[in-house]
Amino acid sequence: MPFTNDAVTLQINERLKNIYNLVHDIEKERIKCEVNLNNISKTLDKVTPDDKVTPYYQQKLKNLYNAACQDAQQEEELVRTTLNKINEIRTIRNERRIQARQAGNKETIRRGALMKMLQITAQTLPLYIGKTPGGKAPALCGAVPAESTYHAKMGDMVAALVKGAEEEENWILAEVVHFNSTTNKYEVDDIDEEQKDRHVLSKRRVVPLPLMRANPETDSHALFSKGSIVMALYPQTTCFYKAVVNQLPTTSTEEYEVLFEDATYADGYSPPLNVAQRYVIAIKEGKKSKN
Length: 291
Prior knowledge:
ten-stranded antiparallel β-sheet; 3 helices; 10 strands; 20% strand
């Protein structure tokens, strides 16, 4: 159903109000949790290392620990709900932008602004936080590929293998316009508005980008290993090129350090360059080096 400006504003304002209330609820839970943690600390102070913990203190500490765990779980649920509301706002705005573009109201974005937008969207990509320690990260988190049955949704960013003017093939950053489940083909728009090209491509020529960042401190298994051959978005461009992972991110905000294949250098590789998790993917097909 088409979005009117009033409807979009109403939906966003509703979620902003939800977020406002949720933030206050989170603060209440945090204070409640602090009270229980302080009570645990005071109780432990009453039990010296040389003393045997009496049944009374055993039960008291057990009750306090259970209460603290419940408080933490409640706070976690509130935080997750808040993050979901933020993502809902991003989705609503994105859908409105796409519908406006399809109606002929395409906004022209200057190249500098486009590069900044790509950087910000990579930095603000949701961070995956599992509910259980040691759990497996889901598909499209970091380096974890999409399921074979998955198809990217309208507005999602993908890497697309397209033919250029001289029939050469290049992996470009594109946005999904539509997926036809009957033909198993995508319609995608080149993200570079200077090109203004729309492509119809088979599913095998489209690779969905990660929908979540992996946290190196808790989900290192969801990152490419050092030395992995990947495709990465060359900085300040909208094209993917073959590269080798040189250094992994060590925190959730850090980027990969990669070496792009480049025949203009003696060793065949560019100097180390940083690329965000969102723009580092695995692609089987070959690709010419950056030059």
